[in-house]
Amino acid sequence: MIILEDELIYVATLGATKGIKGKLKFTSSDDLSPIEGNKVVIDIDSYTLFTVESIKNRKIEFTEVKSIGEAKRLTNHKMFVLKKDLDMFDYALTSELIDTAVYFKDKKIGTIESVSDFKSYLLLNVKGDREYNIPMIDKFVESYDRGRKSISLKVSEDQF
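^ thats the sequence. predicted structure below, dont judge the formating
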């Protein structure tokens, strides 16, 4: 199976090994628990599919990795999910929000340039005619449409 870069969404960077069975630490702004039992792609040699056996406390274990030696070759590599599998997440991944169009009352006010993670919420940096910093919380975000790659806001007129 040939995997193309434009079919992927970045979700994490794999870090140091943990334990002799080949677990790896990872860094990500997202809750990745939905990928347990599913396939992910890691950028080693070429894009390679792995099955997530378990994920807990920022540590991940793959079915195909049986030893610390096998795990070491994955350290410092990026991990992705296939765009076609994004439905396993019932929320937007941080990396997929970049370049998303933002609308207020059906008028495009800009696109998301960057996302900052503040633990309890994401802050969207939106650039258009002006620059806005919008918390991604229910009070401000009416809807997110993954297919259209758009966000609709529900804020009062005077906030713009």
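The chain has a mean pLDDT of 88.
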